[in-house]
């Protein structure tokens, strides 16, 4: 186990459900990033030829929020993603808040739970798994809610049309989740454990 992994058994030692200043800042930054991504044509929502109408990368900040900020950050960022999906909707499927917003609230929760469960064994595996599980949470819950609400027929051919999109989104999410989580952990540990080369009285703070 590397030094970074040893020092990052928890991204934040604070209770995961406690709202701290750091978590508020992380949530605000990722919510802003979500808004930016979803407003850029062809980036946040990518047209695809199936019932959903769009693949998405807008769920990635929510996954990252769950990993680095915990469940509250994941919840808040997921809500913003769902809201942007609702506002951006061009099909009846995503004009329904129970499809556009409700499933997205759980993305950050499953990403956080996966990362928290696996990080003691391997930081990188935990981050990659969190990316995959978070993305699958989005896909499975949106498709399931769409079927429950009657927007997506329970047809094998139609459901199979989602498969390439689901796989691609999971792979992209895993790559970004691991890269950002690893970078965040390295920066965090350097800030916390950086050695002081000057005497305390000589430091400017």
From TrEMBL:
InterPro entries: ECF_trnsprt_substrate-spec
Keywords: Membrane, Transmembrane, Transmembrane helix
A molecular function GO annotation: transmembrane transporter activity
The keyword Zinc is assigned to this record: no
Record-annotated membrane-spanning stretches: 24-48, 60-87, 99-118, 125-152, 158-181
Keyword Cell wall biogenesis/degradation: no
Protein name (database record): ECF transporter S component
């Amino acid at each position: 186990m590397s030094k970074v992994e040893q020092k990052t058994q928890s991204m934040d030692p604070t209770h995961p459900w406690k709202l701290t200043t750091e978590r508020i800042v992380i949530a605000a930054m990722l919510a802003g990033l979500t808004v930016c991504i979803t407003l850029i044509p062809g980036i946040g929502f990518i047209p695809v030829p199936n019932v959903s109408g769009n693949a998405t990368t807008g769920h990635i900040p929510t996954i990252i929020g769950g990993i680095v900020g915990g469940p509250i950050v994941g919840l808040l960022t997921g809500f913003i993603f769902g809201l942007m999906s609702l506002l951006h909707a061009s099909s009846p499927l995503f004009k329904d808040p129970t499809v556009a917003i409700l499933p997205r609230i759980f993305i950050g929760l499953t990403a956080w739970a996966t990362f928290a469960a696996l990080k003691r064994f391997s930081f990188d595996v935990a981050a990659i798994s969190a990316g995959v599980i978070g993305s699958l949470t989005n896909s499975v819950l949106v498709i399931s809610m769409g079927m429950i609400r009657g927007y997506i027929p329970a047809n094998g051919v139609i459901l199979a049309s989602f498969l390439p999109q689901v796989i691609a989104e999971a792979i992209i999410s895993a790559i970004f989740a691991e890269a950002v989580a690893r970078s965040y952990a390295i920066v965090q540990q350097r800030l916390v454990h950086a050695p002081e080369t000057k005497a305390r009285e000589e430091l400017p703070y």
